[in-house]
Design a protein that fits this description.
The complex is a heterodimer. Chain A has a domain of 49 residues. By secondary structure, chain A is an all-alpha fold. By secondary structure, chain B is mostly helical. Classes of the chains: A mainly alpha, B mainly alpha. β1 of chain A pairs antiparallel with β1 of chain B, so a sheet runs across the interface.
Amino acid sequence: MTEDQTLMKYYGRPLADVPVEIREKIEADPDLLSSFETQCQISRLVALKRYETPDPALEDRLCHRVGIRIRNQPSPVKEPFWAHWVLPEWARMVAVVVIMLGLSVLVHREMLINDAMEEELGGLQTSETSVDLPMAGTPDVDPMRSVQFSELRHEDAFTTRLPGFSLSLDTFDFPNLPRVESPEPTDVMATSTNQWSAPLTLPVRNPAP
Amino acid sequence: MSDLEKSEEEVPEKILVQQAREGDVKAFEVLMRRYHGRIYALLYNMTSNKEDAEDLLQEVFLKAYEALPKFKGQSSFYTWVYRIGVNRAINYVKKRKRRAALSLDNVDLGIERDPALVDLASGDSPRRQANLKELQEKLNKALQILSEKHRIVVVMHDIEGMPHNEIAEYVGCSPGTVRSRLFYARQQLQAELADLLKND
């Protein structure tokens, strides 16, 4: 606070009420002292207006007149009962943030649980695999299986759902089986009644007159 | 004071406000009786016209009643109504084009014992002859020359005795601005009240 601002704080007060260090400064400067005393005198003079008292009947007159005007007015719009339950705007913002945080924590927790479960399962599978894997020097035989499968032969390839299956059917000849001609392939697009093949024309509404 | 009046005085402000909000005019009357004094003083000192001040006081309380549903209770009811009074007084003075004729309240005889008046009367200048009525008129006329911004701070500080910080809150400016407005307002009053001031 500058010196002027400090002085401003005490203008209007009696010099006796001013702190000593400030009073000394004021008293050292005659112009400042004169200005300070004038301000104080004006303040005291204006304060005499406190002694002006209103008409004693003012209170009753006020209540009477305002009462009449209130009764003649439509009653103030009452707040609906639920208005008390509506939170202020800042509280609504906080609530949204808290809910968002809560949801993110829940989701994160769920993800952590899933990860843990997957890890646990993965560990179990790994341990099972390690049991199932043939050990070096032992025959590649599953003791649990009673049937031994032979290796997949090329002839058996039709029976598997491989990409070359249809090709294999055409390529390979089966002399003992009667050949059935497949019907002519139909051109789906050519026989289609799809109207989008025709030039597109959309109905245009006439503008209102 | 009757028992009824006594009990009315004791009812907490919050309860009265709640009852008034629910449409109880009697409860609102109790609030008016409780707080009208200082609000009237503010309006009267701003206008120097008792009829105008009374009309404004009615408007202030009517406005308060209408705005009761919006009153959230963050401040006291009195502070809230006083703020309405401050705004109403400032707007009234701002809009009034010419100075209204003075219409003054009676002066309480307690003034004769006030040190400021005693000091004034004991001097050896024309102020000695100034009787109370003249003094009252001079003070009111002098206040009327001030702009609404300067007048409100003089009224609130020098007459009402409010601290700078509180005035700043009501008027909506900084305490520093209040102090500087007070200083310049008193400088303007100095010319008007020159013959009442000591020339030591």
